[in-house]
Amino acid sequence: MVAIRPIALLLALVLLSLSTSSSSAGAPATRPGEHLSNSPDTSLFAQSAAEALNRDFSSRDISFLLLDASTGNVLASRWDHPDTPISMGSLFKPFTALAYGEQHEFQYPVHTCRGAATGCWLPRGHGRMNLTSAIAQSCNSYFRVLTADLSSSDVAPTATRFGLDPPPPTAGVQLAGLGNHWRSSPLRMARAYIELARDHDQPAVSQILDGMAESAKYGTAAAVHLALRSRDALAKTGTAACTHVPPSPGDGFAVVLTPADHPQLLLLVRVHGVPGSHAAQTAAQMLHRIED
Hints:
This protein has eleven helices and seven strands. With about 290 residues, the chain is an alpha+beta fold. The protein has one domain (about 55-290): DD-peptidase/beta-lactamase superfamily (Beta-lactamase), CATH 3.40.710. Strands 2-1-7-6-5 form a five-stranded antiparallel β-sheet, sandwiched between helices. A two-stranded antiparallel sheet has the order 3-4. A hairpin with a 6-residue loop joins β6 and β7. The longest helix is centred in the N-terminal third of the chain and has 17 residues, at about 5-20. The two termini are about 10 Å apart.
């Protein structure tokens, strides 16, 4: 099957739909993305992507959801029970950060991460962190500070606004995805990130998206930039308790949106038994495969 470059294809379809709508006097109004979602060419790309990903990434250790970022529609998937809430680790951090901002007039602290001494996953520490760099490096130490005085009732409105399952009664760093308390379904998480990218003009969102762009270049998801070369992307990684049988110490998660300035594809990946940075490498290879 001939490989299809999805970004060029989707742009061409948008132009085609605009041309068609302008020449169809009296035709009923359509929602943005409707022509794109229902077009035969988009169905062809979805079929091609599904075949390529299932063939070249056939390991049952890999679960994925590929979405059209303009509509939230699923283009291709291999994920058992994607509507079932699971723990997804640090993928919750951007939404926790927004909840903190709403409680503190969107003023965020600067914090020095000293590694294990301040409760971070990186033993040597990340050094001086602000919100953007903390998202890029998924700094647990920074988010321990951010969530110190937060409760689930503080975070629930933000979670609900983005379509996530709200956290159960809890407080502190568990609200940043550490531990196994806050769970949401993979499909809800994928669509929450699409909504986050759409809200780029809202307070603090641009700082978070900048952090995701940095993550894809030289943060925990740096493998994305290496695989996609000149194409910019937004990425966030996470590591969470394993839900497989038999279990491993943890599963890695990565969400990637491309292109960064106007996402048209979102890929959410889970890889059994590895950290989130390794899941980002797998996600990057998958996107490179379907975009070539």
